[in-house]
Structures are given as C-alpha cells and as structure tokens.
Amino acid sequence: MNEQDLKNAFQDVVVASSPPPPMDPGAALGRAHRARSQRRASITGAAVAVLVVGVGLGSAFTTDPGGTRELGMGAGPSSSAGTGGWPDGQTDRTATNGSQADRATQLLELVKASVPAGFDTPVLDYKDPAMHGGMLRAQAQVVSDQGETPEVWEYTAYVPVRRGDGVGRLTVRVSTPDAQGPADACALVALAKDGSLGSGCKTYDIGGKQVGTAAASGVGPASTWASYRAANGWAVTVQQEEEYAHSGYPSLGAQPFFTPDLAALAADPKFLLGG
Amino acid sequence: MSDRDAAFQEYFAARSDVMRGTAYLLCGDWHRAEDLVQQAFTKLYLAWRRIERHEALDAYTRQVLVRTFLSERRRGWFRFESATDDVTDSAAPPGVHPEERMVLLEALAKVPPKQRACLVLRYWEDMSVEQTAAVLRCSEGTVKSQAARGLQTLRGLLSQQERVR
Question: What is the ipTM of this complex?
Fold first, then answer.
C-alpha cells in the first residue's frame, strides 16, 4: 500500500460505510446556544465576584494608570489602538522584545525557582533534530484580536525538570483578564487540559482560593493541571508532566509535585506578574 | 435569527458532512464521529467572532476536531473502541466489498492515535506537512516520521490480516 492507495482506501471506506443522513444544522445551532448560555452564566458569576472584590482594590486599577500600564493588567492602552495592527511593531501575536516579552522571561525565572528540592531545571535541547527551539523557553503572545480592547496577553514558561537521567516538564501559563474566559476553576482547568468541558475535576481550597485540578487518564505519560483565576481576573494554569514530550529524554517516572502542592503553586500570587 | 446564527447554520450545512468523514476515519464509529463534529462546531460557534476570515473556519474546526479526538482518546474514552460494521442499516454501494472496508477500519483502529491523525490529515484531508504540524502542534519532522510509521504500521497490519484471510 502506497500513499495513493491509502487515499483511495479512505475514500472507499467513507463512501462504502454509508454515512448516516446529514446532521441537522438547527439542532447543532441549538446545542451551540446552550453552550453559550452556560458560558455566559459562568462569566456573569465571575464578573460579580470581581466587582465585589474590586470595591477594595478598585483604586489600584483606576487611579494609577501609569503603574498598571507598566506592569499591571496587560489591558491598558495599547500601541495597536486605532491602527488595527499588532502591538509595539510586532509582526504576529508573539512579542519577542519589550515589556511583554520581559514578563515572559520573568515568569520563566519564577517557574525555575519553583521546582521541588531534588530537581534541577537545566538548559536542554531536544534530541530529535526535527524539534525546534530549546526545551527551556518562554513566550509572550497577545491572544485578543487586532484592535480589540482590552488586549489579553498570555505568558507561558516551559521548564524541563530533571532528576537523575529523567526529565519531565513544568509548564506555567498566565493570562491577563479575559472577559471571555471561564471563571469557574474547574471550567478553567478543563479548558487548559483539552479545550473542552472535561470531567474529573477536583478543587482545592488554598487559603480561600479555589484551584481546579485535573489529571490525564488512560494511556500515556502522567500529567496534572492546576488552574486558578484570581479576583482581579488574571488566570494561572500549571501543568506538570512526568515526561517531556518529544525530547528524547527518559521519563522521570513520577510527577514532581503532589497534586495539593501543584494547586498551591498555581495559587501563588507571584505568578500574577504585577496584576 | 441573527446574522451569526444564519452564517453558522449555513456553514454547518455546507461542511459538517466533510468534517464527519474525517471524524469517522479517526474514531471508526459514525455515532462518535457525530459527537466529535458537534463538539467542534459548538466550539467554533463560541469563537465565531474571534475568527475574522471565513477561510479560517475550516482550519479552526478541523483543528478542534482532531485535538478533541486526541485528548479524549488519551483520557481513555476510546480505549475500548473497535471498528464495527453495524453502525448503519443502509446498503453499501456496489463495488466495495464490506469485508474490505472492515479490514481497513480494523487496521486503522490499531494504529496509534497520533499516527492515525497524521494519516487522516495527510491522505484524507490532503493537508500539507506544515498544515498537519500546525493542527497537531508538533514539528514538521514529527509529522513526517509519524505519517511514515503510521503507513508502515498499517501495511503490516493489513498484510497480517490478508494472511489470516
């Protein structure tokens, strides 16, 4: 069987298996409406919570625009406003220099300093030459659309976590406030895990902060996510993996953190990067 | 009905069959394929206003479909999947023997999910290596190696089944 044979075989299989009647667009729209309603309810709940907390914190975000513009919500006036282009002369969503890129670098250092005793965070390259970039890296990207305000920024740090010969990975993703993002900790962790509503979430109360956690199940390397949305809208997700995928290094054989400790890490205010 | 709803329905009517075919090759089950398509289109609807260009709709929907398949597969939803020929009660068109279809489906179900996704995207969707890498969030080299391994695995499985028959 060559590639053309496979193309033909795929065609034969789909046609020959007599697909059911076409799906109903009206029913699909109805399900989409229900999903939207559920999400709106979730966002409304978050907005109320933010407003309540905001009574105490409001001045920090409203009377010191200079301070927040420098370090704060990632949602302040942007150089892209009115131009329709990417911020600060970027050619795409990723900031490779400037204050947003600096935040990603700051996050990387924070994550490196967060691994448990007995592990180190080496600078490693993929053994597979087909893989791009170093294994220890950070990225800042704007996730909102061009011209959309407020801008939503996302900072991600990927850190190899080594013990002995084994290498796993700790990934931390921090987002500035996103009105379209979920507020509920379980919805947040499910979205981080696989982009769906998911299941099997367990929440931890970390000093009054609700952190959602979820673990990969089934076959494959062990992995756990922990997500927390702060009162000011910033969101943090920490993922640990016993294996650094595609790296070519052996697995740690176990994840670095116990789940409650991973949840506590997600709720650590140091990851709010000035928010 | 809002413009968004009308556009969504129009797009669904035009593209859901194609997406369902892709999902069927990934999971080997029409019912599950329809679930995957519904999930993908629901996510598309929620993200509708963030997708500026109409030509990006296909790419987004296909990406969500494949990633949902892979993540659910990893969580174990598909752990006990098996190809079956009783998903429909309508007759197969002439020219393709049902047994041949089953042989390929059974073999495809045994190919590891990511290799399977590579094969389906490359040889059913006719996507380039670069496009496949973007959907699967991996390097182009990985796509090449996974597709080659998948094809090799499939060949091996099919030749085994041929010998059994």
Answer: 0.77
